[in-house]
Structure formats: C-alpha cells, structure tokens
Amino acid sequence: AEVMADENVASRGGAGPEEQERAPGQEAAPREHPNLSKRQMKKLRKQQKWEEERELRKQKRKDRKQQRRLQRQRQAKEEEEEQEANGGRKRPRREAAPSSLRLVVDCSFDDLMLMKDVRKLHKQIQRCYAINRRAAHPVQFYVTSLGGQLKQSMDEKDKGWVNWKDMSFRAEHYSQLVAKEELVYLTSDSPNLLQQLDLHKVYVIGGLVDHNHHKGLTFQRAEEGGIQHAQLPLSTFVRMNSRKVLAVNHVFEIILEYLEKGSWEEAFFSILPQRKGAVAVAAAPPGGGGDSTPEAEPILHPPEQRP
Ligand SMILES: C[S@@+](CC[C@H](N)C(=O)[O-])C[C@H]1O[C@@H](n2cnc3c(N)ncnc32)[C@H](O)[C@@H]1O
To answer: Is 36 inside a domain boundary?
Structure first.
C-alpha cells in the first residue's frame, strides 16, 4: 500500500494497531484445501507460517527496542559517573572520529512548500544536527540554498541556529559549491543502488517535505543537472509495507549509522520507523512486500573506500 513519506520527525516507536495473536511459536494446524495444486498448497503453507511467526517477530522487535533502551541507560549512567569522577565537569558524550564524508541538505525547494511543511523540514534539519553532534563519525554537514521560508522559520523559532557548531549553512545552490563529478544525489527514484559510500563524493539529500506531491522531482533535477544519483539499497535488505520514500532525517541517520556499523542492514533496522513495517528480505512473506521497484543497478566502489 502506498503511504506518505515519513515527513514528521518520527520517533522510532509507534507501530500500527495491536494484532490478535497466538502465543509465540504456537503453530496453527495446517489447513487442507483439496482443490489446490501442490504448488498452491506450498505457497499457502508458507503464508500460514509467515502469519504464525508474526508474534515472534513482534517479540524480537520489542527485544531490540528494550536492548536499545538499556544501552542508552547504561551510557547515561556511565557518563554521569564519569562526570562525577571528573569533578562535575562535562565530557564529550563519546570520542568522535569525524568522517570526511560530505552530506548536503539541498533546500532549493522552498517555494514548493507551505509554511507548515517548511516547519517540518526545519525540525528534520534540527534532528540531523543533533544526531550528527552525537555520532561516532560525524559527517561534514551542509545546508545549501538556505533562504525564504526556511530561514524565516529558523530566525523565528530557533535563533540559536547561527551558533550551531560543525556545520555550514550556505545561501548558494550546492552546484555553485561542489564540482558536478563529486556529487551524488540521493533519491528513491534512481535506478542505481548505493552499495557503499565513497568518501570522495558529496551526497545530497533533497530538503523537501511534499507528501508525495512532487514524486520523482529530485531524480528529475539530478538528471537535468547531469549529476550522478542513487537510492539507498533498501530493497536489498528490507521489505516494507509502505513506500520507500524516507524523510530527510531518516536518510541522514541511516548514513551515520552505516558509517558507524558498516552494515546497511543494521542501519536500516535501527533507524527505520516501525510503522514502515520493515522486515528482512530473507524473512519476507512469499510474493509479498511493499517494494515493487524493478531491479536496480548497483553503484560499486572499491572496498578500500569504505569508511
Ligand atoms: C521526503 S523525500 C522527498 C521526496 C521527493 N518527492 C523527491 O523527489 O525526492 C526527502 C529526501 O530524502 C531522500 N530520500 C528519501 N528516500 C530515499 C531513498 N529510499 N533513497 C535515497 N534517498 C532517499 C531524497 O533525497 C529525498 O529528496
């Protein structure tokens, strides 16, 4: 089913309605259908199995969430103890090893948005900033084409933005700042699958909250500008019950997580909001899944360029 992109800064919780479930691992008696062919029966059994394991998957998701919560609590406690031992002085949250990767949020779509969506974009950028500040490998973060309603929102709602550290706000379009050959536009409509990040490239995220009204716009712009483009390799690792158009902050967070873990799969599962219904490709139901994009071509980079 097609749903809108996650355009609010989304929490990672908040899955859909509770489901009526049987106990974990409890199997339903296989239903026999005398009129079905062997192949159809096999498919049906697979589907039944998929249904039966729903509760287990749900439990696994809960466990992962719980693990993350515990990890955060442990970290907060350690920081507190460290701070006490340090005579009350705060220390940086963790040792950061900055990445040389450059990530741009292209805000040249300002006139296509209503103020309420510009405010959402503003929140998403705030979230990117906060995440980058805490990241193990913070990227070189740029916001380009800053002006119009977005600047107005920032001036009104968050005057402190002028003091944000380790990031660059520019009024210029990214094409005025970076050579064309260095650019890769990230867009879900690209036929190219991003396999690895190339630290010599500049990755661009479209600063757009459009509720799918401007489908394919960033792809079109990249094509017109003769810029390389790629989509995140979501379809290689996850099946989702919705479209694979993500919000700016989710794309940003996935990239940071990939830089830390070196695995797209891990990055997708820890960042994708639960309502996207992401499940591992290997565990996806037979013939099911929301992503019907045709096979995309991989962009391959030599392994030594991996972060
Ligand atoms: C809400 S989307 C905007 C969708 C818009 N209709 C477009 O044409 O890109 C915000 C941005 O996140 C990035 N993005 C979202 N999903 C992506 C995906 N699956 N792969 C790569 N980039 C993605 C793109 O840069 C996109 O412009």
So the answer is: no
